[in-house]
């Protein structure tokens, strides 16, 4: 039996998970790295240069996770605002560390030109367990909507709410990994009582534009910058990436707000979701981080030039 044919060890086709299945899934999750050491310590090192705010706390007994955002120190109402989010899916490592790297090395470059808000690790429990979901088997990146059952999503929505409609740009940093196919899509099918249908993981970087507000020039500017760091994913034999038609090389479109995706929370003119492929034999972990940084900088530069 091939890996793609193997049944997920929890649940059965035709039956949506109940509490027993969710408990069984949760019992399999193991802490593999430290949010405090990897993320909170890095954020704390920015304290002298930027404003830090604890915008929420996730209580998953016996653990508790403070949620922090990094802000421009001199926020001005006359400047355009930019949002950078990472770690909505905690296992997508370069999203977290790309956001932190941008804040540490480049955020100050935009002083006096833009207000910047960075939420580098939206899902710390999942970061520690290299997991896509939160402990309730909920995907935060399908949960950005009113009365969200995801604490991660609800906290970020509360953070952004006072500024909604004032953001010029929002870039949400993600990865597409081999584990998407080997674990996470398989778990999703099992959770929802569906048959798992194998897909194909793109080899390279690509972007997800908003189908209801496409900004092709913005997407192309981001891709041009990233292509200097790592390769752009080619379409598959059907002209698609992860099952969606490629609208231009390296770009697909989702209706981000309707799907409850993070990229839909601000109402910004310019939005995108990055997708880095860390399992490529042609990319290193550092390249993946730098690709995220290049995407953030290019997105901000384009947005400011076309404000």
TrEMBL record:
Keyword Metal-binding belongs to the record: yes
Record keywords: Hydrolase, Metal-binding, Zinc
Gene3D superfamilies: Zn peptidases (3.40.630.10)
Domain of life according to the entry: Bacteria
Cofactor requirement: Zn(2+)
Location of the active site: 275
Xref: Pfam families: AstE_AspA_cat (PF24827)
InterPro entries (alphabetical): AstE_AspA_cat, Peptidase_M14
Residue ranges constituting the Peptidase M14 domain according to the UniProt record: 31-307
Entries under CDD domains matching the protein: M14_REP34-like
Family listed: Belongs to the peptidase M14 family.
Protein name: M14 family metallocarboxypeptidase
Organism: Dyella flava
